[in-house]
Amino acid sequence: MPSRAALKSAVVNRYPLLSSLLDARALPQGTVLTPDLAIIGGGPAGISLALALAGGGQKVLLLESGGLGFEPPTQKLYQGSETGVSYVPLDSGRLRYLGGSTNHWGGWCRPLDEIDFESRDGVPHSGWPFARKEIEPYFARAQALVEAGPWVYDAADLAVSDSGPLIRLGDGGLYTSWFQFSKTKDGILPTHFGQRYRGDLTRAANITPLLNANVTAIMLSADAARVDHLDIATLSGNRLTVKPRFTVLAAGAIESARLMLASNDVMKTGVGNGSDLVGRFFADHPIPRNVATLVLFDGRCAPFYANFLTLANGAVMRAVLSPKAEFLRRKSVVGSLTTVENEVKPDPLATAAILTTAEALGVDAAHAKAFSLGCGMELLPDPDRRLTLSGERDGLGMPRLNLNMTIADDDFARFRATLAELGRQLLAAKSGMIHLSYNTRAEWLKAMDWGNHHMGTTRMQADPKKGVVDSDSKVHGVGNLYVAGSSVFPTYGSSNPTMNLVALTLRLGDHLKKVMA
Amino acid sequence: MRRRGLLGGIVAAAFVAVGGAAWKFHLFGPHYRPTPYDDLLNQITDRAPASLFGQEALKTMPGINAADLARSLRGRGPLAALAESDPVQGRVREVAGWVVPEAVARYAALAAAV
Predict the structure, then answer these.
(1) Looking at the domain assignment, is residue A5 inside a domain?
(2) Using CA atoms in the order A438, A110, A190, A196, what is the torsion angle rounded to 10 degrees?
(3) What is the pLDDT of residues A419-442, one digit of tens each?
């Protein structure tokens, strides 16, 4: 690969720049770039990986499809079709410019729990090829990159006593757990990776961010054992070639799968798709609204359940109700979080239920208050929740995707069992009670919304027959191709993916430093 | 002064007597026609909300009548003790979406069934 200085003298000084970021539209037609590492995608995974390798001896090319802001023609490249359960349009739940979907994320952070990595009998296809301790060393750096403040999480129980009591629960399956929130020092909430780290990327001598560069094909060697080169196209008609020693796909769980499936010149089923797993097990967090009503007999709900609470050390917290690992194992349910939302007025039947129950329990309900509950659910892994290539093509000639979205009755039933357990614990503590809003599939689907946390389509498993990437995030069977991001998550609990995918990406960064040396 | 004090004492004693009688015989509380299940239902101060909720509880117990409910509740201890122990021991019932102690559902159903 030419040195960065040589590249700049050959290209940068002759063609327009975007504030010291290279623009693929301005490079000469047919340019061939030869970095040590090509990172496909300038979202949180791609940027975190580039930053992890900044200052090293390896030349890193960060390929971003978009520019520095939202551009409709680029965003339109995301369009696709859908079948099955109604879902967010494929061009709506993510953003295609530097920073990726951190440009509109909610900033919720929480590390995956240990049980999220376990293979469980009652949850088919569950589990990672390693335990949580493998990524724990990277949590602190990930927390710093997402700017979520000091690491507090469930230690917040001890720090919030002045702000009100925790909801009293009897012994059982759920407990109060804590999320933290991304917050930048300049007041932007939460951290937009493109804005925040653009300067760091351009200052690093070994990193070249290339904007408006769409990878349209991963071209394998004839024996399919290695990536030979990447085809790059711009919407303005420019065509480039990148011949990297190593490639990391970090384009998100939808686009990474699309690129692998569409790159089918050597492997007819797509890159890394020998076991027909690329694009399967698509996952998200369903967030149906108003799933239940929480009644607290004394009417007192600490504000940190429904709103942010900023601790003295600057950490921004919010409490949720989560299932314990023991409950998840015993009841074969999957992860969830339940949030307290707004105060609601009980109807006559609710009032009757509250008065009757409170009197029987011997508690005063004269000041009782009711609150609507929200949630985030993990879905059971489903190979039929799947991305496939459709017959349509985008503006660059790439096949568009079809998403077959599914959600099983069992998904609702298992979360409902979790809510019922919460109700039992409230009664056991004589602190309150719960009303479950939905019983039928139609009721659940009518209330449905989604977290837009795309995961699972290039799942990580040690066995090539069960996963797309191995425990190093390397694509099975392809020697120099890796995947970064939540597309490798086989199971994912109720924690939002961003901080976790950044931690996993930092781990990949350490691995790449060794193999590229 | 002494006569005034005596009159005050008599008035106070009268208030206490009337109030005590009202409390003892529920003179100012809701009145319900007698039922064969008053040994159970008298544990519920206001049967109106219990009966309203109990109509929903009855729907979760098909084929059950008041006599069946009474049989299942007699000899098991007071409602307060059952309402406390049921959720601890996992005995809860969902009534129109409300998760309640099993005993509360049965007592409410009884209030609705009579």
Answers:
(1) no
(2) -140
(3) 999 999 999 999 999 999 999 999
